[in-house]
Amino acid sequence: MRPALFELHGFFVPSYGFFVALGYLAGTLWIYFHLDDIEGREGEFWALAYAIFFSAVLGGKAGYYLLEWKAFRADPWGMLADWRTGWVFWTGFAATMLSGWVFQQAYNRLRRPRRYLPVADLFAISLSLGHIFGRVGCFLEGCCHGRPTTMPWGVPLKSLSVREGLIGVPLHPTQLYEAFGEAAIFAFLAWRVLPGIRAKRYSYGTAFFGYIFLYSVLRFVVEFFRGDDRGAFFLPGLSPSQWFSVFGAALAAALLWRQGILERSPETRSLYL
C-alpha cells in the first residue's frame, strides 16, 4: 500500500488520483486511436470526452451522497469538500450513458445522424481499460478493501479508509480481483467482440451490453469479499452495488436477447440513422 506515490517539489502525488487520471488517459487514447470505427472527428471526440468525464465525476459523487445520506445530512459541507474518496461506480456509469445519449442527440442535429450504440461500444471497452488503473489506485490507497482472510495472498493495510479493527489484518485484495477481472473483460471485448462488430458478424451494441453484463457479474461476486462500508443493505447479505449489478445484468441480457448478438442484416447495416 502506498497512498502517496511520489513527492514532486514538496507536493505529494496521491496514488489514487494519479492512477484514476492514468486510467482516464488510457481509455481516452484508446478511443482516439479507434475513431475510424465510428467515422469520428477529433473535435467531436474531445467534446464528448469532456462530457463523459464531468458526468462520471458528478454522477459518482451524487450516488455516494445518496447512499450515505445520513452522513451527508450531518455534515454536508464537509462531504462536499472532500473529493479524495467517496464514489459510486454505477451512478457514475449511468450518468455517462445519459450524457453520451444527450451529446449524440445534439450532435445529430448538427451533423449526419449517427446511431448511439456504435459509439457506446467503444466507450464501454475504453471504460474497462481505464477501470483497471482505477482499481490499482484503490489498492495503493487502501480503499475498497476486502474482508479478513487466511489465504496466502491476503494483504494487511494501514489506511484511513480501513476501520481500526482491520488495520494490519490480512484482507482480500478485492481491488486487484476487480482489476484482473476488468483486464479479462477488456481483452475479450477489444480482441474478440470488436473485430466481430467490424466484420459485421456481431450487432452494434454487443460490446456495450456485453460490458454491462460481464461487469455486473464480476462486481456481484467481488462484493461478497468486500470488507469496507457497503452502504445500506436492502436485504441481508446484498449490498446496494449488488442490487445495481443484478439490475444491470438483467437489463443487459434482455437487450442482448432482444437485438441479438449476431448481425441479422450485415449487407444493409449502417453506422447512421
Structure notes:
The chain is mainly alpha-helical. It has one domain (14-259). It has nine helices and four strands, in the order ββααααααββααα. Strands 1-2 form a two-stranded antiparallel ribbon. A two-stranded antiparallel ribbon has the order 3-4. Strand 1 and strand 2 form a beta hairpin. Helix 1 (15-32) packs antiparallel against helix 6 (116-141), helix 6 packs parallel to helix 8 and helix 7 runs antiparallel to helix 8. The mean pLDDT is 89.
Compact summary:
The chain is mostly helical. The chain has nine helices and four strands.
Number of helices: 9
Please tell me what the overall shape is: globular
Class by alpha and beta content: mainly alpha
Residues in β-strands, percent: under 5%
What's the helix and strand layout?
Layout: E1 4-8, E2 11-14, H1 15-32, H2 42-67, H3 69-74, H4 76-81, H5 89-110, H6 116-141, E3 155-156, E4 170-171, H7 174-198, H8 206-223, H9 240-259
Antiparallel strand pairs: 1-2, 3-4
Question: Which key terms come to mind for this protein?
Answer:
single chain, 273 residues, mainly alpha, two-stranded antiparallel ribbon, two-stranded antiparallel sheet, 4 strands, globular
